[in-house]
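Worked Example 4.2. Consider the chain below.
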Amino acid sequence: MCPVFRDFKNLVELQLKHHISQFRCDNGKGEYDNEAFRSILTEYGITFELSPPYTQHKNGVSERMIQTHNANAHAMLLDCTLLPSMWAKGISTANYLHARSPTSSNNGMTPYEKLFERKPEVSPLRRFGCKASKSLPASHRSKFGRRAHPLFMLGYVHDSTTIWRFWDPHRRQVIQASNVTFLESDGLEPNSSGRLGLGASSGLNSSAGLGLDVAAVRFGLGASSELNSLGGLRLDATAVGLGASS
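Applying the procedure from the previous section yields the following structure tokens:
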């Protein structure tokens, strides 16, 4: 927490030209109320104000914002094929969108405009969790191989209007990319579990995040049939045939 606060303090003072004079928080012993963090506040002459135990309402502004971001992230995750393990990216995106949304407390002005004194650029906004396609360079293509790489949109990169964060199901990691084609309306209808093809019998590799419910495929696939990490269908030879149990 200490390095993060130092970085935040430098950002506020050097770029935004504001000075932090008071720090208010709850009684989180492992986060703020400890010797290391108190020494930083003392070093910079920042007043430390703790709310009484079990009185979260005394720190109401931040507590309410946490609830708002959690609710928005939950709704976005339910709207797409991404797994709940992507909750951190969902909350980060919810915070990004909130800063660019008009609020009544600012008389209809966005928090971004209030802070930076300019309107935010909203043209880069895309549907969270939507599919995207990134063209592969010629040096990475084979004669009959794929020409583009599938991705899933995870959020934004700082204040950039041309770079986004994506989940790469092939490499199973978060990447940054630009020059991509977004497929915001491409997908399946949500199933009863609120996921796009993530039913209990789907046989999906959970890290791939692909929207296909194997239970809906009527080809006599046995329980040992599954999707590999590249999205390709791998069948158990003993399960394929007339009268094979599904």
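The two ends are 51 Å apart (CA to CA). Confidence is low (pLDDT under 50) at residues 188-246. Compare this with Example 4.1 before moving on.
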